[in-house]
């Protein structure tokens, strides 16, 4: 480790335990940074570079703090040596952690600044947008922020309120009340989601210390560096929140199939996911990386699509620990959609993890899930919720997808009625409704599915979606679902449903916020005997992503033994029959 003598400005190399106390500089790179080569020969090459001023300023501050040495990443590393660069990047978190103090120099922040002002110069500083500065914020024992003229702005604890707002890092990790390793993988990834680096590979390399990972640097590998980072993380943790990323088409190509994320940006809304495996009631699930992908044993839930399963993860939203029943986190867990095959693949719909009751689980299986992305152009057959062009009207159309999920019995599914532009995929069970952007006041599409179970009983599902446009430039679809089990109704149920939904006056009375990147999931459990000895007659779970911060269990209707499901009151949901 090379250090700058703060008095003579000479570089000196230290090895092992002989490293003296030192300060360290955190900054953003500009166009004229002083290099290791510039620093040789009595600063001859560095005297004309603008980057020299902040090094001198940091040296002066270190002398004032009684520190003889300073480390700066621009001139203390010989970046012409790939071996030295790799060693330095793998050691950088430890170097920041070992410093007596870190000077966070914000070159774009003036002295007279309102630190707590949202949208002010401090909040808008480029320092908060760079990938490397995240570890420089978290690793040191002491961080002091300075303005462009080296006027002191405050320490990390003193500025924790604006820092929490700007960075998304909870206060307990900024103040040291909790070490960062106690944060879930998804949460730590979310801290990086809004940051950028000049080189693609550095998005992964700048997080090595945050996850306590060491791996070789391969500049030129591009996005594969982030996949390698996740593979290394999988080797050292059983935290399945690493799989809880959102399929955002701004960052994820349609050909992506890996269960691992393509970049940190897709973890933007994953900061509240925590592993259930950290609780005493949960059992840790071992998994790892092999030549065929991620090898893992997971509970699987079948869907009406025979090639699609929902994989239930040992992860839950942190907000479930609030006012909810104490046992609820152990009955509901997050799941992700996978395409069945010799090697399972991640599917884009639903586009983010959602809650599912554990009573839906049919089996646990040891599976292999793809870890590396596949070649572009591979067709996988899925449906998503997005705005697209309507061939009929030549105007934007709203496309709404609904996924039908089954419990222990997977029935035969047939469509007995469909209206408007309603498609049932060839794999059965994923319904899609398309709404043209017309000037009509109300557009409704609906379908009735007949489910024939192996034990002889039948059920009908009414799925409906409606757009009330009016004068709103961005109309919001409303979603409705009803299940009619035939063992409680007559054979006229289907004709009644068809008559209701085919009427021009059909209206959905339940308002549901529905965004263009949301998803609605309908989960149906057949007649099963569970470990509690009770019989699940029929069950529906309606999950809606009400906002971008979390998915919400909107309502649940079930016939369970009271010991199986804690008290969850379903909200009212109905449709209006035509008179």
Please provide a written account of the structure.
The protein is α+β, with helices and mostly antiparallel strands. The chain has three domains: 2-182, no CATH class; 242-369, no CATH class; 386-576, no CATH class. The chain has a seven-stranded mixed sheet, with helices on both faces. Strands 9, 10, 11, 13, 14, 15 and 16 form a seven-stranded antiparallel sheet that branches. A hairpin with a 5-residue loop joins strand 1 (2-5) and strand 2 (11-13). The longest helix has 17 residues, at 82-98.
Summarize this structure briefly.
With 579 residues, the chain is of the alpha+beta class. 15% of the residues lie in helices and 28% in strands. It folds into three domains: 2-182, no CATH class; 242-369, no CATH class; 386-576, no CATH class.
Task: Name its key features.
3 domains, seven-stranded antiparallel β-sheet
- Using the alpha-carbon principal axes, give the shape: elongated
Model regions low in confidence, pLDDT < 50 over at least 5 residues:
374-396, 425-429, 510-519, 525-579
Largest sheet: 7 strands, mixed
* Helix content class: 10-25%
Distance between the termini: 83 Å
Class from secondary-structure proportions? alpha+beta
Number-wise, the strands total 31
Overall average residue pLDDT: 74
Number of domains: 3
- Radius of gyration, taken over Cα atoms and rounded to an integer in Å: 28 Å
Give the spatial strand order of the biggest sheet. Answer: 2-1-4-3-5-6-7
